[in-house]
Amino acid sequence: MSTFVSAISARRSQYALTDAAALSDSEIVDLIRSVAGEVPSAFNAQPQRAVVLFGEDHHRLWAIVHDALRAVVKDDTAFAATEQKIAGFDAAHGTILYFDDTTVTKNLQERFPSYAANFPVWAQQANGMLQFAVWSALAEAGIGANVQHYNPLIDDAVRDTFGIPADWKLIAQMPFGEVTAPAGEREHMPLDEQVQVRGL
Fold this sequence. Notes:
Layout: H1 3-10, E1 17-18, H2 25-36, E2 48-54, H3 55-72, H4 76-90, E3 94-101, H5 102-111, H6 119-140, E4 144-145, H7 155-162, E5 168-179, H8 191-194
Antiparallel strand pairs: 1-5, 2-3, 3-5, 4-5
Helix pairs in contact: 1-6, 2-6, 3-4, 3-7
């Protein structure tokens, strides 16, 4: 198995995370920046954006999520499980916020109107590739992570709290940290169903 495939295989949705990491904060930022610089995008437009939260900013994010969900989940019993889940994310070392800079997409739509309908889709694909690449790189470095989607419920509060530009659309949240209880076995569909071959 190649080193690249091994890194992908190490990537899992890790939920039992603590406020520790195999790399220093500056090393984590350097890793994320290195990965971001290599991830492709349609027309090399690079609409992907990431904001890395550490310390109190990381905790502020999950307080925002907690309060936003408390406002919509009125039943105390139902909210207890949600509250426990959020506490697990808050216990991690940090969080990466992923955004789409919509000004990039709008500019491309104006410049290339025949592809206008495709650019938002391609921007989402580019963001997904960034998330996957960073997630795999963190896993290879011994740092666990998972991906959450509390947007658009938290969008306004995140924008106001962290000074996010109005044209950046929140796509996902990725808490990360040291893994204390590895994820269980993953089920795979038969690969000959997932990847089909013609003409061989």
